[in-house]
Amino acid sequence: MNRATFSERGFDLINMIFLTLLMVITIYPLLYVAFASVSDAGNLMAHKGILWRPLGLSLDAYTNVFRNPMILKGYGNTLFVVVVGLLFNILLTALGAYALSRKSLQYRKQLMLFIIFTMFFSGGLIPFYLTVKGVGLANTLWALIIPQAINTFNLILMKTAFEAIPDALEESAKMDGANDFVILFRIILPLSMPVIAVMLLYYGVSHWNSWFNAMIFLQDRSMYPLQLILREILLQGEASSNLGAADGDAAMLSVTLKYATIIVATVPILLIYPFLQKYFVKGALIGAIKG
What we know:
about 290 residues; MetI-like fold; single chain; mainly alpha
């Protein structure tokens, strides 16, 4: 076995130092938010510079967040939108991608041009609102699900992944009497689990973080998703902060409140992501490169 040369060892050392610094730069903002969220508000306001640890352990910010009775309701609404929305997303995207990936589909290129057109041009916010209201979805959670059922980029990604599957599998299945639904659900989708995992992550994060459509279409506060509830809490905290000396405790608490809302909103996604990470790179590459 050949021993590494001095230049190779030097390169490995520099590479390790560079990657370590890159890791610290990437992780530190997350640690800062976590430390700030459990710090004492007064100590945090007086602190200058880098934050390496919590400044006096305090859970007042989290207590204030979860004291809001709408938090659990918001979690429930968001979970409904995420779960039901993902079912619609995966089903409709898979159906569309399968149809567009078939070489026998007439006018396939023309259909793709119309679909890609929607990535660059839209009707605008007012026509979008009038359309959703016109079909009776306004002030319902379905307004957060059905209009976002298919994302054009995700459709193209899944279509490309389906095209990478050998045609011989489809031909042999048809010889055995399988129809298109059997081919899609029993052959294509099981072979496309990496790209399905990527779709779950993309669509799931989109549903979880969505608040703008809820602000537009929902008037009933009992239907508000988590992100819209947290936005209200954050705005209330900023309003308290603007009071300044009139309410010093509330003003200081608002400093840590914004960090607590970030943690509450992102922790569920951070807990789920490691289980999908092993599929993420493979699925993204399969869907991005035509085989």
